[in-house]
From TrEMBL:
<dbReference type="Pfam" id="PF13478">
    <property type="entry name" value="XdhC_C"/>
</dbReference>
<dbReference type="InterPro" id="IPR003777">
    <property type="entry name" value="XdhC_CoxI"/>
</dbReference>
<dbReference type="InterPro" id="IPR052698">
    <property type="entry name" value="MoCofactor_Util/Proc"/>
</dbReference>
<dbReference type="Pfam" id="PF02625">
    <property type="entry name" value="XdhC_CoxI"/>
</dbReference>
<feature type="domain" description="XdhC- CoxI">
    <location>
        <begin position="9"/>
        <end position="73"/>
    </location>
</feature>
<protein>
    <submittedName>
        <fullName>XdhC family protein</fullName>
    </submittedName>
</protein>
<feature type="domain" description="XdhC Rossmann">
    <location>
        <begin position="116"/>
        <end position="227"/>
    </location>
</feature>
<dbReference type="InterPro" id="IPR027051">
    <property type="entry name" value="XdhC_Rossmann_dom"/>
</dbReference>
Amino acid sequence: MSARALELAQRRVPFVHARVVRAQAPASARPGDEAIVYGDGTIDGFVGGLCAEGSVRTAALGALNGGGPLLLRVLPAGEAVFPDTPGARVVVNPCLSGGALEIFLEPVLPPPLIEVVGTTPIAEAFVALADVLGYATTRSLPDAPPAEHTGAVIVAGQGRGDAEALRTALDAGVGHIALVASRRRGAALLDELGLTDEERIRVHTPAGLDIGARTAPEVALSILAEVVEAVRARPAPMPERAPVPERPPERVDPVCGMTVTVTAGTPHLAAGDEEFWFCGTGCRDRYAAGLVG
């Protein structure tokens, strides 16, 4: 599982790592069992039977869509086991045949990807500082298109390929573009490129926040601070990662009352003009038998 997680991280695919940390017999999962939950609800691995898996899927998608890390406690109906733990979410699953599970759900979201153009001291210092913050950086030639899901482009060639790099970043739709230049040279270059008003707004020059920076590392720090602001504070932040797929819809199982995340494999039944989804085939068959009876 660790190899698969590493591969997904390298491909910048968001996912949730689920690991069983406690299990009570007769639960089928054991401590240490783990799985990967993708943004479309697909689960790769094992963290319990069908009913427990449904609870994990729904909670994991919530964690992936802004909920953050979560300790999920899955209990059978009528049982009160495991003491309360701050930060835990309790799900009572009436379909469990017994036992109880605690599963830690950790969203793995790729860090912001920043492209740096140039080999100047400022460019080198920026890459070093971005690494300290855990941001991913790439280096490219001025006329090379940015990598997919690039959130920001820092143009630090100081006259070498700056125009080409700006034009390429603008055409690629990069949300945050910073040009390392004096205010006068930056304005002149934007005039030469004949940018529209909308395009000019997307280019930040001089790059960085005004912190009185003088040395190359200080300038790099000011640029990185501006990137952090773009990621964390602005109303429309730059994209930080590959987009998470649209969260699948949720429905309530009419038999057991569980909240069910609807995926291609979710047990389903059409009755007249209505459609129903179930946590497992047992609930579906019980509901179908009731319709027949």
